Structure formats: C-alpha cells, structure tokens
C-alpha cells in the first residue's frame, strides 16, 4: 500500500492511506492531489496544499460559506472511494453531487452517495477501505445528529454563516474552512477562535476562490483549484449559491 506525506486536520505531517475507487467513478471525478489525500488548493507561492480529511480517528470539519466549497469537498471525497451521506433540508442543491456519482448496476443512483433528512438515523460502519463522510447541511446552528464516533468517519458541518450558538460546533472542529466573511462575522470568528486582529481582518478580504484553513497550530491561506470535471458539475468557483 502506497502512502503520501500530508497535512492532517490538525496541521501536522501525517500519512494517509490509499483508497480504491472504480474506473467508472474516476471517469466522473478524478482525484485531486496525492493518493489518499485531498488537495484543497494552492498556497501563496503556488504550492499544493493537501489535507487528510478521511482519517483513522473520528473527525469533525466545519465549512463556513457557500455550498460550492462543501460540494467540491464531497466530490473529492467521492473520488477517493468514500461513502457519502448528505443530511440536508435542501436536497435539490445537492443533486449535482448525486448525479456525479453515476448509477449502480440496477440503473438507480449510486448507493455510495445518499441524501437523507435532518433526523437521527443509523450510519453504515466505516472502514479503512470504505471511509464515511457525513455532510450535515442543517443551517447556522446544527444539531448533533451524526457526531463522528468511529474511526474513518468524518462529519462535515456546513454553516452558511457564523452564529454565536454555533460556538460549540466550531470550537470542537479538527479542521475549519472559512470563506470571506463580513466584518461582523469576522469579529465573531475572532472571538470564537481568539484570532489576532490582522487574522480576522484577512477573513473580510478573501476573494471568491480563496479560503482560510484553520486547525490546531494551523492557519493556511489557499486559493481553490477546480478541475475541468468539477467545473462541468459545479460551474465556476464562487463564494455562495
């Protein structure tokens, strides 16, 4: 089994495993970055920035901003062979991801990507060969419906904007991805994570294709990279939907 050097969700060097995915899926979305990792974009010097989102420990992620970034992460997790469950109150917004997964042998949508309601439900058991990404798209104050409890499970909370009642969710995250915020929310981010003034000022100046990746001892400014296949599915990079 090959492996690659990556930043893990806490910003440290780590080794991510190699996942297997069918040739049909690779025709839809090709993996970005090193095998087993997920390239989010490029750094200030053009260097690729890769994080290990799917890990052998229960992992929490928070994405603050538009749906584009969340859906792009879902596509890239799909390309590594992950099982994707999307709990959402707006299923139509996630149809591009469902369609990108293709169809199973019976002609129905692929069972590897499932849309569910925002209500508690049993989850499949994740494994190293079939990690699980649960996407919780439940508004600005998410409930703990699918907390990460098992190795190889990552729960990603999609927040359209920051709210004081989401402080617990934000503070417990292993990895936070922040898109451009208005000044009031940037100041709230500064309070939540005890950011220096120049850091939350930076959050107000990000372009549509720029993201701050934040974790323990990590603050990385990156520019999103979108593959041609992703552009066909999601359109041009943008801040919101």
What would your notes on this structure say?
It is built from seven helices and twelve strands. Helix content is 23%, strand content 27%. It is an alpha/beta fold and 241 residues long. It has a twelve-stranded mixed β-sheet, covered by helices on one side. Helix 5 (183-193) crosses helix 6 (197-203). The chain is globular, with a radius of gyration of 17 Å. A hairpin with a 4-residue loop joins strand 1 and strand 2. It has helices at residues 23-28, 67-79, 95-100, 167-171, 183-193, 197-203, 228-234; strands at residues 4-8, 13-16, 38-42, 48-52, 59-64, 83-88, 113-116, 132-137, 153-159, 175-178, 210-215, 218-224.
Strand content: 25-35%
Number of helices: 7
Got a strand count?
Answer: 12
Stretches with pLDDT under 50, minimum 5 residues: 1-36
- The strand line-up of the biggest sheet is 2-1-4-3-12-11-10-5-9-8-6-7
Average pLDDT value?
83
- Content-based structural category: alpha/beta
Main sheet record? 12 strands, mixed
Task: Please give the share of residues in helix.
Answer: 10-25%
Radius of gyration: 17 Å
Shape annotation: globular
